[in-house]
């Protein structure tokens, strides 16, 4: 059933973030989906970022970027990227960040969160742009993986193209000398992965003492990958007086502890329920014997004429093997994981986006930060050991209002993993049996290898609060050193791609856990001019666009 709604331009009433609208039809059957509260037959209330069902699908918000307090050069760049209306997370986050307040935002991938912190960050730095001469790094964005760092760096360049600001991206797996050269010329905004950032600090090629804004992007993934020790190392290098922005798709206890240590009376923003899958993604489970998974996958891709499919495996070896098997089946496929060079990963992703490669097989960490517009299909060839990873996986599809499909091929060994995922989602995932691929009931379940013995180095359910011995990477963290730039540079280059996250993908290996540090007290001295101006505004709770 479709609905026609008339949204009143002048609000009749407002309670917190609720906008009252007048409707021409009774919407009782659509209330649950639209999260609408009915006041009377013709009067309803809904959250300002809700999408209401209509004949065309949904009434979208009519808020514009112009009303968010952004400068003309930024608005021009946003317009050139084809964006006219901010997403819910952008509507809520941008005014708060511009006010100078700390932010803790719960936002999944595909919600527009990158622009949600990039746009106000550019605005704040542009207000006090440095003149000629060496530029100190004033904003630091930390990401868990190289691909996500590159994506954020690209956004900074696109939205800041008309501003007198400089930015650069640093991560491992590539030569460090070009990065040193860029830092030597000075940058305002630095996007980095934790390990390579600390490499530069140890070589004294990077000064973090002027940081005004710190962003932790996908903080949950950084903690899952064991970067908590590195993050705390970085925090000790920063000025106490700064603005902190934490973005996370999920809120674990580790995230809450980090937020408590890091943030100062933060504004909490949440545009998606915690640990939930995207609402526009249809999810289905196909039971199948493990030995027939590849056959079923090839059949589904061919029979349904899927032109672009992202497939997840648990291990790097499994990703390689599956991609090779799909190629033998006549399907163009490529694997992306941490053992691949940065150039190979970049080429594989570019070929996938262009359509030259039909199937991209990836490990969990390798796919983190992949930004693929309108990706229609995600397949869990193997279920993840950590239930939250399921949410991250299928979050690759169903983005920006587009529908998506998430298919899971589940063998008897994975029944417990499936139950854990359904417990997290608080729902039963639809199950379908494809004729001809019915599971053999006589096949017994076998244990799934856990821990470090599992190929591919995936994290296998280990949480960031648990200590572990880091893998050798040419030197221990105790050897991060003061022994001179030349020795460190040589070690860094020798490490090459082995200096990646513990799955071989992100920059920096998991380091042994340290004792938690107490939250530092803020010093009494005055902040920098730009910082003070932002903090003076922090008492003003900015009006959200339309709120």
From TrEMBL:
Residues annotated as domain Helicase C-terminal: 295-442
Keyword terms of this UniProt record: ATP-binding, Cytoplasm, Helicase, Hydrolase, Nucleotide-binding, Ribosome biogenesis
Biased composition (Basic residues): 512-521
Protein origin, superkingdom: Bacteria
Function, in words: DEAD-box RNA helicase involved in ribosome assembly. Has RNA-dependent ATPase activity and unwinds double-stranded RNA.
Listed name of the protein: ATP-dependent RNA helicase RhlE
Region (Disordered): 434-547
EC number(s) on file: 3.6.4.13
Record field: compositional bias (Basic and acidic residues): 494-510
GO biological process terms held by the UniProt record: response to temperature stimulus; ribosome assembly
InterPro entries documented for this protein: DEAD/DEAH_box_helicase_dom, DEAD/DEAH_RhlB, DEAD_box_RNA_helicase, DEAD_helicase_RhlE, Helicase_ATP-bd, Helicase_C-like, P-loop_NTPase, RNA-helicase_DEAD-box_CS
Substrates-to-products reaction catalysed: ATP + H2O = ADP + phosphate + H(+)
């Amino acid at each position: 059933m479709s609905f026609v709604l008339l949204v009143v331009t002048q609000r009749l009433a407002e309670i917190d973030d609720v906008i009252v609208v007048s409707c021409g039809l009774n919407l009782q059957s659509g209330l649950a989906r639209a999260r609408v509260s009915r006041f009377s037959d013709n009067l309803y209330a809904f959250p300002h970022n809700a999408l209401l069902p209509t004949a065309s699908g949904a009434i979208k918000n009519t808020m514009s970027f112009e009303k968010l307090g952004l400068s003309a050069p930024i608005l021009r760049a946003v317009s050139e990227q084809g964006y006219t209306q901010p997403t819910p997370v952008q509507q809520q986050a941008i005014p708060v960040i511009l006010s100078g307040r700390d932010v803790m935002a719960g936002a999944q991938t595909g919600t527009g969160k990158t622009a949600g912190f990039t746009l106000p960050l550019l605005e704040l730095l542009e207000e006090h742009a440095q003149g000629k001469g060496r530029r100190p790094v004033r904003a630091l964005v930390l990401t868990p993986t190289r691909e996500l760092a590159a994506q954020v760096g690209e956004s900074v360049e696109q939205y800041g193209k008309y501003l007198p600001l400089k930015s650069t991206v640093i991560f491992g797996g590539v030569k460090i000398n070009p990065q040193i050269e860029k830092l030597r010329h000075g940058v305002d905004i630095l996007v980095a992965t934790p390990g390579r950032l600390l490499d530069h600090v140890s070589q004294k090629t990077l000064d973090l003492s002027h940081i005004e804004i710190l962003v932790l992007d996908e903080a949950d993934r950084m903690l899952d990958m064991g970067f908590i020790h590195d993050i705390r190392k970085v925090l000790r290098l920063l000025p106490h007086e700064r603005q902190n922005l934490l973005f996370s798709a999920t809120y674990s206890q580790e995230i809450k502890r980090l937020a408590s240590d890091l943030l100062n009376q933060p504004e909490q923003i949440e545009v998606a329920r915690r640990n939930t899958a995207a609402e526009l993604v249809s999810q289905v489970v196909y039971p199948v014997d493990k030995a027939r998974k590849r056959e079923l996958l090839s059949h589904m891709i061919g029979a349904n004429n899927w032109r672009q499919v992202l497939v997840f495996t648990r291990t790097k070896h499994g990703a390689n093997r599956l991609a090779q098997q799909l190629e033998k089946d006549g399907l163009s496929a490529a694997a992306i994981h941490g053992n691949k060079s940065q150039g190979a990963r970049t080429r594989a992703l570019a070929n996938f986006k262009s359509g030259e490669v039909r199937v991209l097989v990836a490990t969990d960490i390798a796919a983190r930060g992949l930004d693929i517009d309108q990706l229609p299909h995600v397949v869990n060839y193997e279920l993840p050991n950590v239930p939250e990873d399921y949410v991250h996986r299928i979050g690759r599809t169903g983005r920006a209002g587009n529908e998506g499909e998430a298919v899971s091929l589940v063998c008897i060994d994975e029944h417990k993993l499936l139950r854990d995922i359904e417990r997290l989602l608080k729902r039963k995932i639809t199950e379908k049996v494809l004729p001809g691929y019915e599971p053999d009931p006589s096949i017994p379940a076998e244990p799934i290898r856990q821990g470090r013995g599992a190929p591919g180095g995936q994290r296998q359910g280990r949480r960031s609060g648990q200590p572990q011995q880091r893998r050798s990477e040419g030197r221990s963290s105790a050897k991060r050193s003061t022994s001179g730039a030349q020795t460190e540079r040589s070690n860094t280059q020798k490490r090459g791609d082995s200096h990646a996250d513990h799955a071989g993908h992100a920059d920096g290996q998991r380091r042994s856990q340290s004792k938690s540090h107490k939250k530092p007290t803020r010093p009494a001295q005055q902040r920098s001019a730009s910082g003070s101006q932002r903090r003076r505004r922090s008492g003003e709770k900015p009006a959200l666009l339309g709120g």
